[in-house]
Specification:
Elements lengths: L7 H10 L1 E2 L4 H18 L4 E6 L2 E7 L5 H17 L3 H10 L4 H5 L12 E6 L3 E9 L3 H15 L3
Parallel strand pairs: 1-4
Antiparallel strand pairs: 2-3, 2-5, 4-5
Helix pairs in contact: 2-6
């Protein structure tokens, strides 16, 4: 896999592409289950969460995941909720502006983490309503895993 961080334009294109017409509890379950299946297949020590409107609709931790992964999920999810973009998008936006997320926004790093792995649940004509989050792999792999699951779910 390419370990170069994607450009902001590429991350914005993912967000334009990966939008739902609606997002139900069944969608949350299906996405979470797909991420668990992928993690099991790859032997990935991940934790997974799917949230909508502040409610956690799916949560799982595979072998090797730790309580730290839950903390990372919460911190990355807060970034998605606050900014309406993927956690990796928010990270890259700061970098492309010549700074860091931490330096630009001054948010408590114990509460916010602009690291890849949290992607907004975007509903067309509505906007962001939640997040799909993976923690446990390097941040680019977390991000790619979530994007692949959403893309597959949407039939892309």
């Amino acid at each position: 896999m390419d370990d170069a961080f994607p450009a902001l334009a590429e991350l914005a294109a993912e967000e334009r592409e990966l939008q739902f017409t609606s997002f139900t509890n069944d969608d949350a379950w299906d996405l979470g289950a797909a991420l668990v299946a992928s993690g099991r297949r790859d032997g990935a020590p991940i934790a997974v969460a799917v949230v909508r409107n502040g409610s956690r609709l799916f949560s799982a931790a595979l072998t090797g995941a730790t309580p730290d992964n839950d903390a990372w999920i919460e911190r990355k999810t807060r970034v998605v909720h606050r900014f309406g973009h993927s956690s990796l998008y928010v990270r890259q936006a700061s970098i492309e502006r010549g700074t860091t997320f931490e330096g630009e926004f001054g948010l408590d790093p114990r509460r916010y983490a602009a690291h890849g792995g949290a992607f907004p649940v975007l509903v067309r004509s509505v906007g962001p309503v939640g997040a799909v989050v993976v923690s446990g792999l390097p941040q680019l792999d977390d991000h790619r895993m979530v994007v692949a699951a959403i893309r597959a779910h949407l039939g892309g």
